[in-house]
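Q: What structure does this chain adopt?
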Amino acid sequence: MEGIFEFLFKYRPLVFEQGEFGFGAPASVRTWLLLAGLIAASTVATYTVARGKSTVADRGVMAGFRVALLALLVFCLLQPILTLSTVVPQQNFVGVLIDDSRSMSLENEDGTPRNAFIPEALTPDESDLLEALSDRFVLRFFRFSDVARRIDGLGEMTFDGTHTNLANALTVAREELSGVPLSGLVMVTDGADTGERPLTEAIVPLQAAGVPVFTVGLGDELVEPDIELGRVELPRTVLEGSTLMVDVVVTQSGFDQGAVVPILVEDDDQILAEETVELGPDGEPVVQRIGFELEESGARRIQFRIPTQQTERVERNNARNAWVEVRAESDKVLYFEGEPRWEVKFMRRAVADDDNLQLVLLQRTADSKFLRLDVSDSTELQFGFPTTRQELYRYRGLILGSVEASFFTHDQLQMIADFVSDRGGGLLFLGGQSAFAEGGWAGTPVEEVMPVILGPTDDDPEGYFSEVKVGPTPAGQAHPAVQLDVEQEEVAARWEALPAVTTVNPLNEIRPGATTLLEGERSGGGNQVVLAFQRYGRGTSIALTIQDSWLWQMHSDVPLEDQGHEAFWKQMLRWLVDGVPDAVSAATDQEQVEPGESVRLVATVQDSTFIEVNDASVTARITSPSGMVEEVPLEWTVEEDGEYTAEFRPTELGDFEIDLEVLRGERELGSDVTYIHATPSDREYFSSARRTQVLQRIAEDTGGQFYTPETIESLPEDITVTGAGVTLVEEHDLWDMPVLFLLMLFLMGAEWGFRRIRGLV
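A:
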């Protein structure tokens, strides 16, 4: 019977059981054939109403035969097929990812480099591990550092990569092996990830695809003995002659807690400062504050360095570099005072010989009458306090003395708040009879800018007059604004020697995020905030709540030669304008790069009212150490108003100067300059201990396991062979089955025979 079935239907019954029926004709053809068939069937059906010798029943039988024959013909034209899918088992693949970064060349405690394990474990014909893996899987090898790529063998490994980007390595391997049965990935690394991309971005797709990662951790979990100089942050720009206070983070392992090591601050081999730091417990960072001055203008690459200590395992993590631009130009500060007071005289005297500060005084002498001092020309402030943002924003700092809030219009009050938040200026509030709550500043747009919380004016029985002995807080002792020209360890004693002040606005609370630098206790009891500050938007706001700081200079207990008060005001005003941005600024995503590494340039462009500009022409003129000049255009990012970016790759070793020019039409909006240093990267030598927790997390989150060279023997058996294979698809034509032709012949013969019997031939 099976032979007869196969003769009639071309294929065995099993093919029809396992196959999936369908039509091979294109969808458009199928549509037209069905329409044509329906039209033809309708035409044939009218046979039943034709007149002649035949009866209606005769014509119906003959129409039925013809419609059946037509349907069978359309069925054949639709190209009926049977589709059979067969899974053919295929050998599974495993991706082996090998860390090719510089940290892999660091020595273990026994003196062997970390990468010594790699040729031992992965060399063909010499490794039992590789043989066991190759017996079960098809292996594909990848090397990775900052980027990842396929390799044919270990001979392509160089171990000179400047980054370790684990996320990128996992993503590249997964994507390249996505078309094959993948049993897992094996990642051989120390786990010292220096990439910026979160690991989660690579782990989630692996979880979704069911691809486990088996991590092999190399290197010591604790590199000792070793000292590492961590994060160092300098302001991008400072005024010439400014004192900088910089926090340096130091971490050690393997040395005695409490041991003392020096930190050197160097500028082109010139030692600017030297400070000692006491080492903390193993692995715990210690912060050391270092103060130094920068006298000469220009770009300076400052190095912070701890001399290599005896027996240190890693030497290249003992130094950090940072760029700072020392500006020689004069910064303008507007001081608006509402009443005569001694502070004006002492403040002006403090900066009289400072070429980097121009203190412009606007003092109200009567209603609608003002005294102007040190203005640049006769038009400056001729109508009193600025009424436009363009006029106010020409200053980098603003001081508000004892002047009531009602003096200003609402637009001016909002403009003062925007001066800090949008322009990024420094705003100093001075104590006085018409300052803070006493001046009606509560409820104004400026109140939120203040670092202090304004309370009711009648809360303190002593009111405005109270004797307060001022002293620095722990934060204040290390802040340059209150150093008074003495060493840090002498600051507290220096303030203790100063006389008490007697007029102060009663304030005892600061805003969340604000910092108190000077404080005291009121004679009637209760804490008094004397000097506090906060970041607000792009700028800084400062509150000095006393009115008679001049006592620190003129009190009978203060020696005539004491210049502490003058130093205080000079430091205060320099701090006020420190870091205030220009309308046009240039920056790079990193200050030190490897030659050939991509550098992202970012320019922020605003107009004179500090509103972002999106239609500017921005060009970076990049001068290499050899003097070659390259012009790079920057394009608006679209995502951020006023932000323009470009990329370039330094090809030489040394310092690159980047001059930014910004035009809007034919008008220049501004310019700026920044710098980068191209040198062999030392990034791989920081935080270089094996990151066991990172590697364990990758393995656990993906369903893999974590190994060390001592436990790796079980790896080949721990990787599961998947059931995946290659699917073969076969199509079998049905239109030419003998049974269809026999049916056609039967239908035509049946109609002819019926006509013959009925006498209709």
